[in-house]
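Follow-up to my post from last week.
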Amino acid sequence: MSKTIKLKKGFDINLAGKPEKKISEIPLSEIFAVKPTDFSHMSRPKLLVKEGDTVKAGTPILYDKMSEEIRYCAPVSGEVAEIKRGEKRKLLEIKILADKEVVFEKFKSYNTSELSGLSKEDALAQMKAGGVWPNVLQRPFGVVANPEDKPKAIFISAFDTNPLAPDVAYQLGDKERFFQAGLDVLKKFTDGKIHLNIDGQAEVAQVFSQAEGVELNKFTGAHPAGNVGVQIHHLDPINKGDIAWTVTPYGVAQIGQLFAEGKYDASKLVAVTGSEISTPGYVKTYSGAMLGNLSGDLSSNLRFISGNPLTGENCGKNGYLGYYHNQMTVIPEGDYEEFLGWLKPSTTKLSFHKALGLLSFLNKKKEYTVDTNTHGEERPFVVSGAFEEVLPMDILPTYLFKAIIAEDYDEMEALGIFELVEEDVALCEFIDPSKNDLQEILREGIELIKNS
Amino acid sequence: MKALQKLFDSVKPNFEKGGKWEKFYTLYEGHRTIAFAPDILTKNKGTQIKDAVDLKRVMITVVIAMIPALLFGMWNVGHQHFISVGEEATLINKIIIGSIAVVPVLIVSYAVGLLTEFIFCVIRNHPISEGYLVTGMLIALVMPPTIPLWQVAMATIFAVVIGKEAFGGTGMNILNVALTARAFLYFAYPGQISGDNVWVYLGGKETVDAFSGATVLSYGPTAMANGTNMLAEIGGHWYDGMFSFMNMFIGAIPGSIGETSVLMCLIGAAILIGTGVGSWKIILSVFGGAYFMGVVFNLVGGNPYMDFPAHYHLVAGGLAFGAVFMATDPVSASQTEVGKWIYGFLIGLLTVLIRVVNPAYPEGIMLAILFMNVFAPLIDYYVVDANKKRRLKRATV
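User reply:
Got it. Predicted complex:
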């Protein structure tokens, strides 16, 4: 049965620079990069190419020693320009100098009737080789799924409530027609349901409302209502020993395209957002594009973020868009001191709280320009009850964080660490008056549990 | 402001690693971050933006919420002084006399407390925390106006060292720091913080003939001893209308500096609740618990104190001050939402229980809060346990 779930907790961060539904033409980046660091589970990345090799879009260039069959492929065709390593020779970036015209590696293609007859094994083999498998993430832990597992259900969140979030359906662009094919392939991997969760407050795009073979659930509420982890908690929560998979709509369509057209197409409509962008909108490019190329020319002292301002990563102007990111954000850096900044009343500073002089709650419609200043120093947990107001799950975040800091495995499990990944506590981290790095703390806890 | 920034910049090298005062870096940093919100940036991973709130702003909100109680307290100390010595006085005169008694207490509390805190921060090399902004004010407000200053200093040192730093500093303490200070004096030097002669600042003058400086709560044991009605006893106060319900609500009665006025505490409560800094659940449930216990005693009856109307308990003594400013301390209170209801209710209940059943302690709120501080983790334990059980149960269905 499809469900409608109304969430009361949460907070919408209303920022300036939301993307308009308009695609700007930009010259294609010259350099694209694949970043092994995008895949948090990848412990021993191994290269399949060396500098100077030519690759096509879909040529495998990387795999993880721990699961060798899952290939990570080049997003564009061209020449491997540089392999960048960091300390202890840690693999950071594989840069590809792109051809003017992208050429694709050929995979087997299927029409609709062939697709329904396709066996799970063949489907799996093509997904692993064709570069689309990393779209399938596993809960608990939020890592690339293990192909051997049989998930109890697959969850797809069809909307994004993060600050400056792109429109997920619009962003599918011409991949929209492969969405159903992707669902049909994924259906082969689970005996359970595929949950497609849509925004109950907005008009729903046809591609989602007419999808077949799925449970269509409606969610209403403020951020993080669009987080797939929150949705799982209310539909079919993860207990110890359970495994569920999550895929983004873009990932589903990319999987569908691999089977329908026989190519790994890493092209995406990237939302270019943030207060410093003159006309926020969408641009068409490929996974791993250079951020400075997408944003156009901008003044200095800005932060270039791959992803959104809550869960994204500061990559710099010359950094590259992450594998899982369909959005980039440019906001001002906050490297200034403010005289009595902790005391002065302000209507221009955004806050979830209403403590003395923080007046942003009076004007919820206003779009705020927020910079990267932390507005305070790190402190022990003092304020209680605030995290609970922005996490619409039956979880006690403060106790969970304390259990992680104390490395108490039993407590972490009992308090629900299996149900969370970083993005679910990002809002807690934003509103925390004690300025703790909660996403980092949670990831440390997840790693402890995963490796125990 | 550029000049001040430059001044900080010019002394900075002395405090950095290798500088001659490198041990005192935390003092430099503490002062600079009070003058200027720091230029710290969010990390490369994690949230790229942060909320405008910080702990300093949370703490200063509490301090602001206490200002009405402080100002009223200054006036009231003067007011009590002049009616007790039988002189007419203007508002200004009352405030001046009040300040003479109150301001030194406030200064000693802040100066000694901050110094102790600074010494600890330097020795242990951790950042100076803003928690003492609130504690310093609280300590002053819960002292009688006649308290010897050296006792304030002793109590403050005890509270900061044993009550807080021994547990690891701000955020780690089990007991409310300000109440630890008061409890220390209560048991170490009871003569200066309890009885009938400490609540009115006389400044060496002679009192009027019928004068008694007793608080309303010490009328309970008297009424019980004489077997008379307690309301009649307090109604017969030498100063007409002193302990009427209204006057107790307004707070023009003898007592600790900041605790007498329920009205000012409620203004503080409005600030705390409006800004979301104090938990309305705790404040409401403390009053609820006290009223409930008062009603139970009224129903049971049996002695004059038990017959003391329940709503009088709400305006007597330091209940309101404790409920609004002490019980809501997020560190020593229950930290779960369900726990906050239980915690507050039991504080209220225990306060009235201590008042009525144990006349040796005329005021119960201090001990009730300290007692529940100790039990708050236990309450939370069961609330958290229920959460875990819900999760386990879900797995087996």
